[in-house]
Amino acid sequence: MGKQKSGGMRDVLRQKLAAHYDSSSNTFQNSFVVGGVSGLCDRAFAVAAGVSEATFVRARADVTLVRPTHAGRLKVHARAVGADRAALDAWVRAQRNSMEGDKITGKKWYTEKTTEKQLWDRYVKSCDRVQQPTKGSSRLLFAIWKQHSEIVEVKPTGHAICDTCSDIHTERLALEGLHDAYSKQRMVELGKEADAHNNFHSKERAHYDDAVHVATHHPEKKTCITIDAPTQHQFDLPSQARWKRDTSKKLDGTHRWQSKVEGVLDAGVGMMVFIARTALGGGGNLTATVLMLSLMHHVKLGRELGDSLHLQARRLH
After folding, report:
1. Strand locations in the chain, DSSP E?
2. Model pLDDT, residue 25
3. Which pLDDT value is given to residue 189?
4. Which of 80, 152, 158, 219 lies 20 to 30 Å (CA to CA) from residue 10?
């Protein structure tokens, strides 16, 4: 049984099966003929025809469920894809309402860098909130998202997680564009080192997540405090003198604030921000002082201290 242009092997087999189907009893008659042998069942006919089990199952279901042929299936698929694309495109446009950007011309909208999975999860949650079914797939949604050139994704601009991450990144930058044997070999080695180190960070993150969970739900067992400070360029704030209101603004690189602001996350309690004066200095002195004040505030709120303290902080030197 050769493949036909009318819809492929599936539709050809469907036509053969339909001739032996009794719709009143919903059964196939054992009246198939193969090689002069009559009285065969539909499965024997499919085996003799040399079609796969998947093709046979689909063709058989097409007959029993009165499904459309290949051309009809294409039309149904086109309508479904068109409706899904329209729904997903409308959802993407709606997301711009929560983004920073030019809300008059709509030329540029800024949001954080996102992956296909993160975008799909956000879409599913938004559908769940309004009790509506999802449309399309994560792949289609991500493709539509990328087509919206007015949405600009901004990558994270923080510092490296640790010294090892920074060292690997620095060495990679130095070797980029070099094609000698040593550079190529070293880039491969750095890739392996980065993978192993990222695996370490993944385990470290899981350990931290466990600590946050225990501190939140069982405060008597553990207290979890995270202390960190913003990076330098995150304080490049627009500034303008009062007597220069009509001149263009500039970015004021306020380096003096780089080590003077500390953020604290106390699991199960909340977040705090400490601003230190210059005399206190930075590094370990500032971190230790912030930790002491955070623990005092923790107790002041009436939440008991745990049997152990999980402290995650930046370098103390």
Report:
1. 21-22, 27-28, 32-34, 37-40, 100-101, 109-112, 151-154, 222-228, 236-239, 250-253, 261-266, 270-275, 308-313
2. 85
3. 92
4. 80
Contact present, 6 and 70 (Cβ < 8 Å): yes
Span 32-85, pLDDT tens digits: 888 888 888 988 888 888 888 888 998 888 888 888 787 777 776 667 668 888
DSSP 8-class letter at 268: T
Closest CA to 283 of 309, 262, 264: 262
Between CA 41 and CA 236 the distance in angstroms is 79
pLDDT at 110: 80
Question: In the numeric block, which tokens belong to residue 311?
Answer: 């402290």
- Spatial neighbors of 39 by CB under 8 A, at least 6 apart, are 30, 31, 32
Half-sphere exposure of 144 (CA within 13 A, CB side): 23
In terms of phi and psi (left: phi > 0; alpha: psi -120 to 50; beta: otherwise), the region of 267 is beta
Q: What is the dihedral of CA 167, 173, 178, 184, to 10 degrees?
A: 50
Q: What are phi and psi of 305, to 5 degrees?
A: -80, 145
